[in-house]
Fold this protein.
Amino acid sequence: MAKVKLNAMETNQEPGGDFDVVIVGAGFAGLYMLHRMRGLGFSARVFEAGSGVGGTWFWNRYPGARCDVESMEYSYQFSDELQQEWVWTERYASQPEILRYLNHVADRFSLRRDIQLNTHVLAATFNETAGRWTIETSAGNRVSAQFCVMATGCLSSTNTPNFKGRSHFAGPSYHTGNWPQEGVDFIGKRVGVIGTGSSAVQCIPLIAQQASHLNVFQRTPTYTIPAHNGPLDPEVQREVKANYANFRAYNKLLPSGLNIRHNEASALAIPKEERQHEYEERWAHGGLPFLGAFADLLFSKEANDTAAEFIHEKIRSAVHDPVIAEKLLPRIVFGCKRPCVDTGYYQTFNRSNVTLVNVSSSPIEEITENGLTVKGKKYELDAIVFATGYDAMTGSLLKIDIRGHCGRSLKEAWAEGPRTYLGVATVGFPNLFTITGPGSPSVLTNMIPSIEQHVEWIADCVLYVRDHGFVCIKPTLAAQDAWVHHVNSVAGATLFPTCNSWYLGANIPGKSRVFMPYLGFPPYVQKCNDVAAKGYEGFVLIRGNDGERHAALSR
Ligand code: NA7
C-alpha cells in the first residue's frame, strides 16, 4: 500500500493540458489503453477515482472476493514477457492477488506517471468547432483531448437500494463493491447480508465463520457451481506457459472467449444416465464450464430444466434441513443470470449461526436503528452488508455528464436503453469510445481478452484517423440501428431475457429493460475486424478546416 500511495503523490497533477487521448478509469481496460496509446506515440492522461489502480479489483475487497475465471486465462496477453514472468498461486485468483498483478503491470510499463488518482471525471463535453472533448474533474482539472475513451468498467457503479429508513441504521454498513481498504472484523457481530448474487455467495461463507449470527436476506435464490479452488499446480502453469500463444488463440475461438469445452449435443437427445454423467463431470470439474454441458441449455427451457433439476438435487444433498434447502432452490432459468462460483456456499446454511430469510414475497420493509424488519419481524443487526450489485454496463457512464452533438447528453440519447455501434461508439458522440460498452460481448465473456480486443481496435482506429488526415470519427445512425437490432435479435433467440437480470437492467428500478451485452465473442471480433478492414464501415470520417468540420459534425 505504501508504494501505491507514494506513486499517487508522484502522479502528475497538472490541472490543465491538451492531450490526444483522455482515458477514464485505471482498471484492466484503462491501464492497457494507456500503454497502447503511448506506444503509438499519442499523449494520454488517465483519470481514476480510486486512490490506486485496479478498478473493480481495487474496490471489491470484501471477504472471499475472487475471480470466477481461472487465473491462467484472467490476465493480459499483450505482452508475452508479462504473461511468462507472472506466477499465479491459485486456480482462481483472489482479489488481493489480482490487485498485486495490476500494480505490477502499472509499474512494469511505467504507467503511473500518466495516471491521476483520487479524481472523478464529472463531465466530458464535445466542442464541435474545435473537434475536441473538454474533460472536467472533481480535482479541478479542465483538460482537452481529441479522443475520449471510457474505461469505466461494466460493474463499477454500485447499487444500494433505497430501503426506507436506511440512514437510521446506527451500526456500520458496507457495499461489497466499495469495501474498506483496512478490512472489516465481524467477530462476535450480528451481521445481515442483503443479496445472494455472486458477491454474496463469496462473502457469506467467510462472514459466517466470524459473525455471532448471520442473517442472509434472499430475494432470488441463485445457482452456484463449486469452484474447487486450490493452489495452482506448478506443472499446469508450466504447461500453459510453454504454449501460451496457442492457448490464448484457441480460447478466442470459443463462444465466450473462455476455455470451456462446449458439448455440441442437446441435453434432450441423450438418455438420462448419460446426461447425468455429463453434469456430474462438470460439477466435479467446477466453475463456469458447467454452462457448456449441452448446446441447448440457453435455448430450450426443457433442456434447461434438466440442468436446474440436477443442481436442485445437489442443493438438497448439501443442505441438511429440507425446508432451508427448498428455500435455496433457484426457480429461474439456469444461466439467464451469470451463475456464481462458490466455496462452501450451500453448506454454510447448515451452520447454527446462519439464518436464511426469504424477502421475495415479503420485501425488506424498513431499516431501523438496530436492524431491519421483514413482514413485521425485527432482525437485530450490528452490521449490514449490501451485496446488492451494480447499475451494470451503463451506470458509470451515465454518472458522468457526457455531452456530444448539440450539447445532447448521453443520458438523453440512452433514455430508452443504451444504443451503440459495436458497443464502442454512439451516434452523436464523435471521437468517444467505450471499452466493453453495451452492445459488445463484455460481461458474457472472459473480460480480459474482450478488453484487449477493444483496446487494440480503438487504438488502431485512432491511428487510422490520424494517419489518414482525418480529425473525427462518428458512427452512422443506420449502422447503429442495424447493430442494436442484431444484438437484440441474437438475445431474443435465447432464454436470457426470461429473468430479471442485470444484463437487462432489470435490477435497477426505472432502468429500461434492454439486453445489453452481445452474445458471441468470435463473430463479434470478426465483425469488428471487417469494419476496420473496410475503412471503418458504418462510421463517418471527417477532415477539413474548422468550418467544414463543424458542418460535418452537425449533420
Ligand atoms: P448481483 O449479481 O446483481 O446480485 C445482487 C443481489 O442483491 C441479488 O441477489 C439481488 O436479488 C439482491 N438485491 C438487489 N436489490 C435488492 C433488494 N431491494 N432487496 C433484496 N435483495 C436485493 O450482484 P453481485 O455483486 O453479487 O455480482 C455482480 C457480478 O459480479 C456477478 O454477476 C459476477 O459477474 C461478478 P435479485 O436477484 O435482484 O432478486
Confidence is low (pLDDT under 50) at residues 1-11.
